[in-house]
Amino acid sequence: MRHNKNFNHLGRQSGHRKAMMANMATSLIIHKRISTTVAKAKALKRYAEPIITRSKNDTTHNRRVAFSYLRDKNAVTELFRMVGPAIGDRPGGYTRILKTGFRLGDAADMCIIELVDFNETYKKDDKAAAKGRTRRGRSGAKKTDGAAQPKAASAPAVEPAVEAVTEETPQVEASAPETVETAPVAGETPAVEEAPVELPAAEEEAPAELPAEEAKEE
Q: pTM score, two decimals?
């Protein structure tokens, strides 16, 4: 009978299910990321994270316990050599599940399960967010107030220099010539002096020539 058995059997018997979990945990440790269904990923998360926790303390006993679950010496070597030092400061939550959609054949909900500390993209974002977080207390406020007071006391020393510059400026303006040429305004025609108009001189009338016959008679 299935009384008080609240874990997902995944449609398999006990031996088949344990072998599948060992195979998937080995692939996750070696490749750092695998693609599977959401149901299998959640079951793998509960199976693999206690094994990863043992990799923080590299002892013969922990290696033997990890080998009894993984059943692969290469995976055990990778776990204690690479994964253990990387997750040493993390208090849990070594894996992440990212959903990728539905499978075409049977519309199963698919996802990617990966080791958190081996994803460079998310790791950079986490570091940047951690650097941006700051906590301010009352002691910090007092320090800022004390630092602001010397600046306020030193401020009046700058004012005489500014006044001296403003006093010198009228002397420069007085030496400038007062006459200012006004530029012609747009739309107005400049005044033009009218020059006296010279009339053409009257042509002197030449005496009319007498005909040749009258000249001979005279």
A: 0.56
